[in-house]
Amino acid sequence: MSDEHPIELPEGLVIQVGDGTGNERYRTCQECGSDCVPEHAGSDDMGARIAFVCPEHGLHSVVDPFEHLR
């Protein structure tokens, strides 16, 4: 995305990178320190989730980006 062609967002929609605390450790594998790859993880009964998966060590953490709306 470039500043030249910004995406127009509906009024009231906020896009946030991270959990808002500045703490990005949920993305970092505790075993090797690598940045975990975000993958979709969810189902009809549990809603949307983002799983952070280390390429070497597997699932690291699961984040619910809409928890504050439930």
Please bin the fraction of helical residues.
Answer: under 10%
Which radius of gyration do the C-alpha atoms yield?
15 Å
The averaged pLDDT comes out at 77
Distance between the termini: 30 Å
The run of helices and strands is: EEE
Major β-sheet annotation: 3 strands, antiparallel
Class computed from helices, strands and strand pairing:
mainly beta
Uncertain spans:
none
Discrete helix count: 0
Per DSSP E runs of 2 or more residues, the count of β-strands stands at 3
Strand order of the largest sheet: 1-2-3
Question: Would you give an account of this structure?
Answer:
- The chain has a domain at 25-69.
- It contains no helices and 3 strands.
- It has strands at 37-43, 47-54, 58-63.
- It has a 3-stranded antiparallel β-sheet with strand order 1-2-3, with no helix packed on it.
- The relative contact order is 0.18.
What's the structural blueprint in terms of helices and strands?
Blueprint: E1 37-43, E2 47-54, E3 58-63
